[in-house]
Automatic annotation (TrEMBL):
Protein inscuteable homologue C-terminal domain segment(s): 70-522
Gene symbol of the encoding locus: Insc
GO BP of this protein: apical protein localization; asymmetric cell division; establishment of mitotic spindle orientation; regulation of asymmetric cell division
PANTHER family: INSCUTEABLE, PROTEIN INSCUTEABLE HOMOLOG
Pfam families attached to this UniProt entry: Insc_C, INSC_LBD
GO CC, alphabetical: apical cortex
Occurrences of domain Protein inscuteable homologue LGN-binding (ranges): 13-57
Name under which the protein is recorded: INSC protein
GO molecular function: cytoskeletal anchor activity
Lineage: Eukaryota, Metazoa, Chordata, Craniata, Vertebrata
Amino acid sequence: LPSLSLPSSMHLIQVDSVQRWMEDLKLMTDCECMCILQSKPISIEKDEQNELILSSQYSTCDNLQLLLKRAWIISTELTRIAQKLEKNRWQRVHSMTVRVNCHVHSMINEYNTFTRSSSEEMHQLEKLLIDKCSEFTAFTERCLQTEDEEILKSMKSCVNETLTTVAQYFGQLIELVLTQEAQNLLRQIELSGSLYVTESAISSLFSLAQEGAHLCRIIAKEGGVVALFKICRQDCFRCLYPQTLRTLASICCVEEGIHQLEKVDGILCLADILTDTSHSEATHAEAAAVIAQITSPHLTFTQHLSSFLENMEEIMTALVKLCQEASSGEVFLLASAALANITFFDTMACEILLQLNATKILLAACSDKRIVDTPFSRDQVVTILANMSVLDQCASEIIQGNGVQLLMDMLFEKSSSGNPAEAAACERVQQKSAVTLARLSRDPEVADAAVKLSCIPRLIKLCRSPTERNNSDSVLVACLAALRRLAVMSPDGLEDSDFQQLVKPRLVDSFLLCTNMEESFV
């Protein structure tokens, strides 16, 4: 039942189980109360008072989070019902159906408590879902009352069909709710002249975008990118530019967002912001983040960004300047990430960087531990160097900036925290530094400098010791390639056993030998 999933809020699963239980406790106990009270209010006066308390306690953003948590519980319960149904656990199926019924009532009541403008379509869907849940509960109750296997078998297909319909109505309702909330927030952004109201609406929109790609698609479809770029073109909202650009970067992780950005000349607006020296560093950094997002090599739908090529040199000039003048590691990371992505985006980018003296600026930044302070920043720098190293002119720039020493140091990159993301970044740094050395070592001067800095022993160590490279095959392949290049330029730097095992055989044979290295020592 694919419609049972709720991708926009599935990230909630990835939390500590006790924390998950604590968060869900209120929702679960509400559900049990509703089972007992059969959804009947105790008194009208009490309900009105509760409504006032609820609406004053939570903001729109909090209410949406509550709704998404409730929706996640319902989605999970529906999936579990399908699993129990497969095993013919009718008692469990019925009790879980009753629970889902109560959760659906609670979710709809909670939403109607904090919303003030439900559409007719919304009311119809709510009624369809409630009626179908009631029918589902009655159906499973009837299944409990018979023990005839044949009858149960015939009823099972009907129960499955009803479950699928409940899941479809539920998915449609959530989609409609989220669309309506996005519309309300965008209406506030477009119509409000108040700085406070606009800021609050953008903040809520950003929170909504953080819920995943599906929410970003809804926001983009409803005109979110258009509305946010309108803000970025009004001087009276200058203080909101960083927050607005951060929201745009989140929305533009999906194809619909990038299409909308192209339609409203978003690239030109970003170029204007980046080149306007009157803007704050925070604004420039967030504009760089949008550029990094829309040029990400992981996206497969950037080919239509024709306007980017028209403004590329101007944007890259501003980004190099931002790297040079960055006051913090975060600012440098955003600017360098944008530059790194652009070097994948178009081959002219590397030539532009050479003209801008970017190699010298990046190498100088790496010597400042306050600016280049994480493996993530070094990953961006070495990515740029690796892509630039295909140009012959790059070798002299690297040597002049003491870049060979930097590449050698990067071969020793290790994660200090054990964090998986950081460990992966360290692997990328090792791999790309080896790739850069292999490419640059076609120049005898670079190869000579690498040999003098003892790059060959380090490359051999990375090949022979899986733990040194965090068991990464991509690092191994890059190191073997770099080692073979340096061996051609300086054959005396290798012992005979290293030459026979790591250089002389085919690359694939050396690779297989090194991947089994741990076993050979046992």
